[in-house]
UniProtKB/TrEMBL annotation, chain A:
Keyword Cytoplasm part of the UniProt annotation: no
Signal peptide range: 1-18
Protein name: YVTN family beta-propeller repeat protein
Family matches, as NCBIfam families: beta_rpt_yvtn, PQQ_ABC_repeats
InterPro entries linked: Host-pathogen_enzymatic-act, N2O_reductase_N, PQQ_b_propeller, WD40/YVTN_repeat-like_dom_sf, YNCE-like_beta-prop, YVTN_b-propeller_repeat
Source organism of the structure: Sedimentitalea xiamensis
Automatic annotation (TrEMBL), chain B:
Lineage: Bacteria, Pseudomonadati, Pseudomonadota, Alphaproteobacteria, Rhodobacterales
Name assigned to this protein: ABC transporter substrate-binding protein
Keyword terms of this UniProt record: Amino-acid transport, Transport
Annotated source species: Sedimentitalea xiamensis
Domain of life the protein comes from: Bacteria
Transport among keywords: yes
Length: 318, 388
């Protein structure tokens, strides 16, 4: 609350592009749409039960939503907020990644230890791949050849060949991996481990561990520093990592793997999304039921926006 | 006869699987049946597979990870009847495998741990909260995944201090388990600066379903005023009739009311909902503290094997006691083992029937090593020598 008033003036003075950030509210069964210009919630849209993962199609004409407890992926028209149809997703879809072909969704089925591949056009399941227990983090490489599922209880990154749709490698990571992203043109895979308190960087070509990043937040016990969601800046030089119940976001130099900063945000920070021009970062704070807006250049929190109960996922729409 | 057949199968499994898997571990869940005195209400019988079901869930999780690493796991369940020969069952099990999960009273666990055959074995106590087992009665080969009575008592006292409920009364039953928990509560009240607890022993033999409303007010009248009524009734005999019937209206905690537990169905944060779902799907019932302790024992073994790529007890024991070991236990913090007595350090949920009220350690209880070590016997307090 304390950074609520004065920085808004700065924000309004600076040129900020238009656009929206969409937030799924896990325990409200809604999406809060935040206007990037005004930093206010302009729409609240009902969804299926327990919405978590959210992703836009490449042309932003559709938004995909994991409605975990409805056991479906919903396809919504972002203009009207209408559900166009449901996709078969397997049970309890939590997170997903969209293949560069804009057509295949790779979905983690948390309760079923399965990764489901769905064709969004024919609305059929193309494959179901057995992975470890509680799959969560999902990523597809920029060239579309590799898909990654991380499993929270098995503590692995599972490497899927998207051609054969079979596992070709399984690499151990620290306890409770949550999120995965390809970086450096696809040559690196980054995986966060919530309970392990680390982010592991793999070399994609060899699947060998390249670096392990640890965090240290002043005044917070290491047990409570739990990396979850993370996002790369557009130039891929900086990574912002949500540290869960430590209520901080870490700023990592993606080239040196060094942590440069910690930014205080809301309670149990989970996922995040950039504004279309990358000047602002929106973090979902599950316990405090709000979104923190971070000024990316200055690395400071500038506003808190109240959304629904237990905000989880975030996605940007220009 | 039946028992030896099962163990024979375990042995056959090991020799059969060893050729296929890179590593293979067989675990025996050893249960000693104990006499259960009658209680006033039969509303909540213990499930038949209490504890065992937790070990089975842990097994399936280990197997999934093992599939990717070519590690194989096996679980035998051996139930020794009340008049059965526990030690010979333990010897037979140890002949097959160095890994046992013990579901038995503290004294029996000590007898099994003291067997010459158990010398290099790795045993997990998943049932006894007894403080001596973590104190001067500890054994180097005996780890504990069930929280001690002291850990549960400390969790409740942290909450009492946090609420500034510093005047406490207690009704304790006469069963040894009741007395042990009452002793832990009294010790904890001193530890956290509350001091003496006004105490009465429940020595009624009336059937409280008929007259709780008449008996409990009178029984609690001479306590005077207090902030919270503690109940030490680990068998769940009379405790359920205390709430709403005390002379002065006060919250009830301990074995009833607000309960400090290793696990409960109301724990749903920290990814726990997924573990609960898996358990309910497998068993058709809620996961109980003993199920959780047996699950944690299986998972600890699995995690140690995954990380060390070894299956011998000595290597796994060393790893479990090292900084490298951490178990994601769905309670918001990584779980590990105390190097001075083999107790698994873990948060303790404080629960009612319907909700998680708080999770101990509560905010503000600091510790130089781990805040979780504010619960139970800390290194300077424990007289355990076996781990040195």
């Amino acid at each position: 609350m304390r950074f609520l008033h004065f920085p808004i003036a700065i924000l309004l003075a600076a040129p900020v592009s238009a656009g929206e950030v969409w937030i799924t509210n896990e325990k409200d069964d809604t999406i809060s749409v935040i206007d990037v210009q005004t930093l206010e919630v302009t729409r609240t849209i009902p969804t299926g039960e327990r919405p978590r993962g959210i992703i836009f199609s490449h042309d932003y004409s559709r938004v995909y939503i994991c409605a975990s407890d409805s056991d479906t992926v919903q396809v919504m028209d972002p203009d009207t907020g209408e559900i166009l149809h449901d996709l078969p997703s397997g049970e309890d879809p939590e997170q997903f990644a969209l293949h560069p072909n804009d057509r295949h969704l790779y979905i983690a089925n948390e309760d079923d230890a399965i990764t489901t591949v769905v064709d969004t056009e024919t609305r059929t399941i193309l494959a179901q791949i057995n992975v470890g227990i509680e799959p969560e983090g999902m990523a597809v490489s920029p060239d579309g050849k590799i898909a990654i599922t991380t499993s929270e209880t098995t503590n692995m990154a599972h490497w899927i060949d998207t051609e054969t749709r079979e596992l070709f490698a399984n690499t151990l990571v620290d306890a409770r991996p949550r999120h995965a992203e390809f970086a450096a043109g696809g040559s690196e895979l980054w995986v966060s481990s919530e309970i392990g308190g680390t982010v592991t960087v793999f070399d994609t070509a060899t699947q060998a561990e390249k670096a392990k990043i640890r965090f240290e937040v002043q005044g917070v016990h290491p047990d409570r520093v739990q990396p979850v969601g993370f996002e790369f800046s557009a130039d891929e030089k900086t990574v912002f990592v949500a540290l869960g119940p430590s209520n901080h976001v870490a700023v990592i130099n993606a080239e040196t793997f060094e942590v440069e900063d910690y930014i205080l945000v809301g309670r149990r920070v989970w996922h995040m999304a950039f504004s279309p021009d990358d000047s602002l970062l929106f973090t979902t704070n599950g316990v405090s039921g709000d979104v923190t807006v971070i000024d990316v250049a200055n690395r400071e929190a500038v506003k808190t926006i109240k959304v629904g109960r237990f905000p989880w996922g975030a996605a940007t729409r220009p | 006869m039946f028992r030896s057949t099962i163990l024979g199968l375990g042995l056959a499994w090991l020799s059969g699987v060893a050729a296929l898997a890179d590593l293979a571990v067989s675990v025996t869940y050893l249960q000693q049946a104990t006499p259960r005195p009658p209680v006033l209400s039969n509303l909540d019988p213990d499930p038949e597979n209490l504890g065992i079901a937790g070990a089975r869930l842990g097994l399936t999780e280990n197997e999934t990870t093992g599939r990717f690493l070519n590690h194989a796991y096996h679980l035998d369940v051996v139930e020794v009847p009340e008049d059965g020969d526990l030690l010979s069952a333990a010897r037979t099990a140890l002949a097959t495998s160095a890994f046992l999960i013990l579901d038995m009273p503290a004294a029996d666990a000590q007898r099994v741990a003291d067997l010459p055959e158990a010398a290099g074995a790795l045993l997990f106590n998943a049932a006894a909260g007894n403080m001596t087992l973590r104190d001067d009665g500890c054994r180097a080969n005996l780890f504990h995944t069930i929280p001690s009575d002291a850990m549960r008592a400390d969790a409740l006292m942290q909450f009492a201090v946090f609420k500034r409920w510093d005047k406490l009364a207690m009704i304790a039953g006469a069963h040894p388990d009741d007395i042990a928990f009452a002793t832990a509560l009294k010790r904890s009240a001193v530890k956290f600066g509350i001091g003496t607890i006004a105490e009465k022993t429940w020595d009624f033999d009336a059937d409280m379903r008929r007259n709780a409303a008449q008996e409990v007010p009178l029984f609690t009248q001479d306590f005077g005023d207090y902030a919270m009524m503690l109940v030490a009734d680990e068998l769940h005999d009379f405790g359920r009739y205390v709430a709403y019937n005390t002379w002065v209206p006060r919250p009830v905690a301990g074995s009833e009311g607000l309960r400090p537990v290793a696990w409960d169905r109301v724990v749903e944060q920290w990814g726990a909902a997924q573990l609960q779902n898996r358990f309910v799907e497998m068993t058709g019932r809620d996961m109980a503290p003993r199920d959780y302790a047996a699950w944690a024992a299986m998972r600890s073994l699995g995690e140690a094997m995954t990380r060390t790529n070894a299956d011998d007890a000595a290597t796994l024991r060393d790893f479990l006691l090292s900084d490298g070991f951490e178990l994601a236990g769905f309670k918001g913090r990584p779980l590990s083992f105390r190097t001075w007595n083999g107790q698994m350090r873990q948060p303790i949920p404080l629960v009612t029937d319907r909700a998680l009220v708080a999770l101990a350690p509560l905010d503000g209880y600091l510790h130089q090593r781990s805040e979780m070590d504010t619960l139970g016997l800390d290194e300077p307090e424990s007289r355990c020598e076996a781990f040195k």
